[in-house]
Amino acid sequence: MTTSRVPRSLIKSRDDAPSAGLEKENAQLRQAVTSHATVDQAIGVLLAVYRIPPTAGFEVLREVSQRTNIKLHAVAGTVIGWALGEPLPERLGQELDASVRRHAQPVGDSDQPG
């Protein structure tokens, strides 16, 4: 029987590559879930403050993100911070107001018969 003099912990197994890939994928999925939760919370803030529908809330966040070149989850985090009393950066606030105006339905429009 032959034994190796190299400790098992130093021997690379064939499973190392797939394991590292799975760990990376898990980390990415955890980040995606966190980002999604942040975006959902920011949509809730917009619904409460501006009384817009959820689909409009997402479109507002998306537009602001594109127009300011700030990642969507970062815009969402800033909106949540604003709801908690943090100041809203001026440019982001201007884009937010403009986007809300573009996406807000006049009050009562949805109640009118078609």
Written account of the structure:
- The protein is mostly helical and about 110 residues long.
- It is about 65% helix and about 0% strand.
- The protein is built from 4 helices and no strands.
- It has helices spanning about 15-50, 55-70, 70-85, 90-105.
- Helix 2 (about 55-70) crosses helix 3 and helix 2 (about 55-70) packs across helix 4.
- The protein starts with 15 loop residues before the first helix and ends in an 11-residue tail after the last helix.
Summarize the helix and strand pattern as letters.
Answer: HHHH
Outline, from the CA principal axes?
Answer: elongated
User: Percent of residues in beta strands?
Assistant: under 5%
Q: For the record, give the distance between the C-alpha atoms at the N and C termini, rounded to a whole number.
A: 86 Å
Specify the helix fraction band. Answer: 55-70%
Largest sheet: none
Average per-residue pLDDT, rounded, comes to 82
Pick out the low-confidence regions: 110-114
In short:
By secondary structure, the protein is mainly α.
